[in-house]
Structure formats: structure tokens, C-alpha cells
Amino acid sequence: MLEIETLRVTYGRRLALDGVSLTVRPGEIVGLIGPNGAGKSTLIRAVSGVQPIQSGRVRVFGQDLSILPVRERARLLAVVPQARNLPPAFTVYESALIGRTPYLGWLGQAGTADHESARQALERTQLQELSSRRVGELSGGEQQRVLLARALTQETPVLLLDEPTTHLDLQHQSRLLNLVRSLASEHQLCVLMALHDLNLAGLYADQVALLVEGRLLACGSPDVVLTEKTLGEVYHIPVHVMTHPDYGSPLILPDGREGLIG
Amino acid sequence: MATHHFRPYLISLGLLLVALVLSVAAGPVFIPPGTLLRILADQLPGFSLPADWPKTFSTILYQIRLPHAALVLLTGAALGGSGAAYQGLFRNPLADPYLIGVATGAGLGAVLAMSVEWPRSLFGLYTIPVAAFIGASLTLLIVYSLARVGNTLPTTTLILAGVAVSAFATSLTSLLMLRSNEELRRALGWLLGGSIIGGWAPVLAVLPYITIGLGILIASGHALNVLQFGEEQAQQIGLPAERVKTLLLVSASLTTAAAVAFSGIIGFIGLIVPHVVRMLWGSDYRLLLPLSVIGGATALLLADLVARLLLAPQVLPVGIVTALVGAPFFLWVLRRARNLAYW
Predict the structure, then answer these.
(1) Same domain, A163 and A39
(2) Model confidence, pTM
């Protein structure tokens, strides 16, 4: 269980996060949505401990993360950042294996269990065939999966993802999110995932948390949060919300053209 | 990262041995390698060989050639190792103790310590590396804060800041040297790379600093691998990035400073050697660091050999030789830097 309690973060004088509280239960995906600059990435960074927080607390199964050493923290919580500027010379396998760092000594000598963990992570992310390729030669979607594999070898109960679908095409978006979905249920992971695309959030998240100007405006199941009224107010354009023909999840259709014509 | 190979070690240690033998054998008096080995073996307990070599040979060997080779070896190892470490820490293929100004800063520190009083006692000798280390650390701090743009350290600003701070330190150094006329010529020769004090004393003076510095660096290959993902991700993977970075910067600067203290400012070894190692054996820092240490020692022994033999009996400062080879190499890397497949 991931518990975020009244988290406050300031950038200089600007309040980036204002008392955000959120709970992610095992097996659950919470989709973090909101306009640009609402604080989605800041929340991910603050929860992972790389962004200093003003006040509040982050707990994983009762353990306060702020008092844990970096190494212990990395055994509880793994992050899948956006794929950019990855060290291009490492192979896919090496990049995945480096996720074992919180379990290795200073010299980084990996044992059988570590290699097994890396092998499994590559299998789950369907990267076995690319195992010995250099990361710099891969496509954006493949690099994103490498980062997911690296996070999986950390074998943490909590997984944070920062807009993992940003640079992916339609096919790779759904492949990656299906994978996250099945990992969450299979291994009972607590998944907190920032998403730009409201439709993907509606389709894949059990709960969506709507962040606006550093405040949590709404949190609940997609059909409760993703309404025409709420989204229209937050994004300042009229939107239509329909129902997905197969899954019954909300489908969001922006109606920005009205403004242009009228 | 997967496996540690023996081949690279075997090859580079073999080359080092060849360079070492050549370095000790060659000079105004040539000592044939065979004789060389017999003189050395004669010292071992239980060996008693007929002394069929001139007596001067063993004097030359023990009092001139061996200490000189040892100092050059340690200096080269220090430059190769710290170069690889700086490149990994700054995630920049052009970081080199000389190009980022650390070596010049160390030189200023060393000259400052010498100009107070030319040290003759062994205690005095030990203070030179310390002064060089202070100079190196201050320079690094200045260059780093000047070159930093947000959270990144772009090549252009790094090199520009390095050059600017270097020029400033160099002029201060020249000023100090001009005030001590008597020693000017010797000090100038030293600055361009060359030992001023012979014998074993300088070797013993730098040995502890270089051993500690390189020891920490060589053991930190995995940490440097993790740092290649950037500080933030490194921390999320479980490495206390801030603390580790400080430890490694201090170790690399200590190593550089010790090298500069008695061998002067020698450029480009820290740039060329790690690059060649990368091209041959990849970017895993657990392999790259020790191999750059061995390679640096080999490269500087060979450069020193050229410096001594090229215009014999005149001895060139070794820094001139490394710059003659290194500057064109630097330009070549600069052109390729935008798209380095092996970096």
C-alpha cells in the first residue's frame, strides 16, 4: 500500500503541490491526470524522494520513506521515467541488471538471483530478443520498455510511471499499458502512473486522480471523475464524454472547434 | 557488465611490461633487456649471477632509470584513471584533467608551495601534493559552477570554463615563477611535464595519494555505471548520488594533483587512453577504469621514451609529446562527439 499524506512542495515561492493525499492499494492502478504544469511529474519525483518536500509524508506499507536510506527506498519503490538521454552504450541486459543496485554490494557483483531477476524482467517486457543490443540503437518504445524492465528488477511493491506513453505510437501505447495492467494484477503492485491521455487513463486506471495547479481536485473511478462538467472546467474547453463500446469506460472527445468557428 | 574478461587485462598488462622494459633500457647508456633482467635477478635472495656487466649499469638502473620509470608509470596511471572518472562523472566524453583546468590548478598549488621554499627535506616533498590537491579542488569547484547549465554540464561550457580558468591559473603560475629567477628554467621544464627531482623521494611522496585515489576510483566502477543514467535516476535506482559523486570527484582530483605535483602538467593522456579503451572494450566502468589506469601508465612511459630519445641528448618535456599527439586526437573526438556510438 502506498500512502501519500498531505504532500506540500514549493519551488521558491511557488506552491507546486498543495496538500496532496492519495492512496494506492495493491493490484491497483491510479492514473494521475491534469493539465500541463499541474504537478504530475513533481508528485512522482516527490514520492520517489528526489524532490525535497516541504511537509507531508509518503509511506509504503507503513514505512516512512523520508527516514529510509536511498538504498532501502529503492527496494520499496521503483520509478519508470520518460525515456530520454539513456546511456546509449549499455546493452538492454546491462540496463535491466542495473536495477539490482539496491541489492548489490559497492563493487556491483551480480549473483545468480540477480541475473535471474533481470532475465525474467526482460521476458515480461518482451525484450529477450533485444537482450544484447545497445540501448542507443533502440526505438523510443523499446527504450521505454527497457526502463520498465529496469524498474521490475528492483522487485518493489510500488511502481511509479511518469507519462510512459508520451513518445509512443498507438500500438506501443496499448502494449505497454496492457503490460503494466497485467503486472499490477499478477504481482499485486501498487501502480501510480502519470498520464497525459485522458482516454488511456479512463481505459487502464482503476482510479483517476485529477491534479490541478498542485491540488487534488478529484479522485475516484474514471466514470465519476471524467465528466463533461469537471473536464470542461479544468481544461477550459467544452468536451463530450461518451461510453467506450467494448469496455464501458469513459471516452473523452474535445470540442475545441466550436471556439474556432464561433 | 555481464562478464569480466581476462583478455583485455592480459593485453594491456603485456603492453605495459614492454613499455616498462623499453623505458628502463633506453637512455644515454643502453642497457640490453637481457642484462637488465640479470641485474634485477641478482638482487633476489638465492640468486648469485656472475656480474658480467659494468658496475655503472646497476647504479644507473637503481638510482636513475627505475625511479624515473616508476614516477612516470604512477603519473600515467593517475592521469588515465582520473580522466576516465571525470568523463563518467560529468557524462562528457571530453572531460580530461588538463582540459577542464584541474591539472593547471594543481600546478598553481604546487608552484605556490615550492615558491615559499624549495623543498629539500622529505617532509617538504609531501606538502607539494597536498598544495596541488587544494589547487585542483578549488579549480574544479570554479569550473563546475561556471560550466553548469541547470542540471547539465554541456561540453562547450565545460571546455570554455576549463580554458578560461586554466589561462588564469597559468598566468598566476608564471607570475610566481618569474619572481624566483634562479629556478625559473627548471620550473618551466617541470610545468611542461618532467620531473625536477630525481631518485626515489618523489615516488614515495606521491605513492600514498595515488594509491588511495586510484583505489577508490577502480572500486567504484559500478557506481559510475549507475551514474550514467543521471543523478536523479541513480538515486531512484538506489545510489546515494550526491555523496558518491563528491567522493569520486575528490578521489579523481587527489589523483590528478599527486600526478601534477612531481611530473608537471601533462595533457591529453586522460582523454586519449579512456577513449581507446572504450573503442576496444566498451563502456562498462568496472572494466574501463582499471584498463585506463594500466593504459595511462603505458602511454606515458612510451611518450616519455620519445621525449628522451627524439632529440637526444636533449630531453624534451613529456607534456610536449603528449600534446603533439593529443591535440589532433582531441579535435577528432570533438568532431565525433555528437554521435559517439561507443560512448
Answers:
(1) yes
(2) 0.89
